[in-house]
Amino acid sequence: MILLAVDWALVLEKLIFIAVIITISLVVALYMTFGERKVAAWIQDRIGPNRAGPLGLLQPLADGVKMFFKEEIIPTSSNKVLFILGPSLAMITAMLTSAVIPWGDKAELFGRTITLQIADVNIGILYVFGVVSLGVYGIMIGSWASNNKFSLMGGLRAASQIISYELAMGLSLIALLMITGSLSLGEMVKQQQEGWWNFFLQPLGFFIFLVCAFAECNRTPFDLAEAENELIGGYHSEYSSLKLGFYLFAEYINMFISSAVMATLYFGGYDILPFYDETAWGLSANLMALLGAAALFVKILVFIFIFMWVRWTIPRFRYDQLMNLGWKKLIPLALFNMLVTAAVILFLKK
Amino acid sequence: MEITQILFWFLSVLAVFGALMMVTSKNPVYSVLWLIVVFFAISGHYILLNAQFLAIVNIIVYAGAIMVLFLFVIMLMNLNAETEPQKNKWLKIAGVVAGCSLMLVFVAALRQSDELLKAPVSMGGETGLIKTLGKTLFTDYVLPFEISSVLFLSAMVGAVVIGKKGD
């Protein structure tokens, strides 16, 4: 009797690949905390962390160990189940998006052709959008379960902010979809490899997407949810130890993943150079896949740097300014972008 | 059993269990969270039917937007068993009668489902995909589609009118 007719080799391959991607995300996020502090120090003309290990490189490990050994506090008046569910959900939704991002071209290993993408679903970009819209639950549930007014305020701010900026993000994506005609991220990268990078076709759309990505990640200037001078710590006021660490860490993973999404959508993903056919180099498929993945990571690092640069340059918005920017500026701008794109496509097809 | 069958039973049990928990939970926040679980199970069913677009839109719209607003309102009003006013006896009886009538309608609707099962359903690879869906919507069903957009517009205008009432 065959219980399950499954290609176990494929399952194993995917499991290993998922483990690798998650490990890479975690390590990158770990060193992003270090990078953040170094960039902040550089912008503020300081030295930054330099004590733990050579050049302070062991600082994130020290921070992690500190988080582990802090006292675990669950407030007596909180809802315990949801209090623990909150940070877990934040972490899970942060990791989920990595499933549809094409990390590189096909590679050959042990006689198998391996696609460097966990799942090339034909609705990839909608999947990203769906997971982003679920990201707010971690914050909302945690903030409500804390049973603290300031936490709840932070959670509500986060929720309304994410819902507002999702609209502009979706509208800027529609313009992009009109050009590509496909929802699959793998397909989008292939098109950009052969033609232009989408950034050159959709500069305004990219700008709107970038601003919305900042807002979705709750990063300054949009970090109203944890405005420490008005709300103590916002939604994670009551959290301590590793649960606080999960919330903070999820933010960095979100930044990493949204950088990857932006690089994939607008900057050619694992395409190495714009307007250039890399196959002319005549390198083997494996080497090209490796170089492509490296190119993607360089792009991701540039975006991460922009995230940090903006955080330490622009002060936080006031709440009404945030809502005005989202509803009265970005959404009309995105609609305008969509109309212009549609008109140009129609004109070119005639 | 094939893997799709196992998934089907798993998702069905999850959906029914989630729905029961949603109705019986005392705490409205738990009810909302169980309802989200139900939406996920139903999205899983859509994927099994090869309707990926429907599955993900179900998650974006219902789990991602509408339930967030539900949660929003429930958290702000801080509803719970203590503050909930006790409903009077007649209201409870009316609720039971209404529920039983709904049950009756469901049974009547599902009575002939055996015959439907015999009819072959073509679930080809292309049926639920976004391309097929878009083509069908904008050719065969273009009028209902456009009319439903007017419905949304009227809902938006209504929301603005309610929001402006205070000024």
From TrEMBL, chain A:
Protein localization: Cell membrane; Membrane
Q: Which domain of life is it from?
A: Bacteria
Alphabetized UniProt keyword annotations: Cell membrane, Membrane, NAD, Quinone, Translocase, Transmembrane, Transmembrane helix, Ubiquinone
Catalysed reactions listed for this entry: a quinone + NADH + 5 H(+)(in) = a quinol + NAD(+) + 4 H(+)(out)
Q: What is its EC number?
A: 7.1.1.-
Q: Which InterPro entries match?
A: NADH_UbQ_OxRdtase_su1/FPO, NADH_UbQ_OxRdtase_su1_CS
Q: Give Gene Ontology CC terms.
A: plasma membrane
How this chain assembles, per its entry, is:
NDH-1 is composed of 14 different subunits. Subunits NuoA, H, J, K, L, M, N constitute the membrane sector of the complex.
The record's function comment reads: NDH-1 shuttles electrons from NADH, via FMN and iron-sulfur (Fe-S) centers, to quinones in the respiratory chain. The immediate electron acceptor for the enzyme in this species is believed to be ubiquinone. Couples the redox reaction to proton translocation (for every two electrons transferred, four hydrogen ions are translocated across the cytoplasmic membrane), and thus conserves the redox energy in a proton gradient. This subunit may bind ubiquinone.
Q: Which HAMAP family match?
A: NDH1_NuoH (MF_01350)
NCBIfam families attached to this UniProt entry: PRK06076.1-2 (NF004741)
Q: What is this protein called?
A: NADH-quinone oxidoreductase subunit H
Automatic annotation (TrEMBL), chain B:
Give any Gene Ontology cellular component: plasma membrane
What are the protein's GO molecular function terms?
Answer: NADH dehydrogenase (ubiquinone) activity; quinone binding
How is this protein situated with respect to the membrane?
A: Multi-pass membrane protein
Specify the enzyme's EC class, one word: translocase
The entry's localization annotation reads: Cell membrane
The reaction(s) annotated as catalysed by this protein in its Swiss-Prot or TrEMBL entry are: a quinone + NADH + 5 H(+)(in) = a quinol + NAD(+) + 4 H(+)(out)
> Which keywords does UniProt give here?
Cell membrane, Membrane, NAD, Quinone, Transmembrane, Transmembrane helix
EC number(s) stated in the UniProt entry for this protein: 7.1.1.-
InterPro entries, alphabetized: NADH_UbQ/plastoQ_OxRdtase_su6, Nuo/plastoQ_OxRdtase_6_NuoJ
Q: Where are the transmembrane segments?
A: 6-23, 30-49, 55-78, 90-110, 141-162
Q: Does the keyword Nucleotide-binding apply?
A: no
Q: Which family does it belong to?
A: Belongs to the complex I subunit 6 family.
Q: What does this protein do?
A: NDH-1 shuttles electrons from NADH, via FMN and iron-sulfur (Fe-S) centers, to quinones in the respiratory chain. Couples the redox reaction to proton translocation (for every two electrons transferred, four hydrogen ions are translocated across the cytoplasmic membrane), and thus conserves the redox energy in a proton gradient.
Give the protein's recorded name: NADH-quinone oxidoreductase subunit J
What lineage is this protein's organism placed in? Bacteria, Pseudomonadati, Bacteroidota, Chitinophagia, Chitinophagales
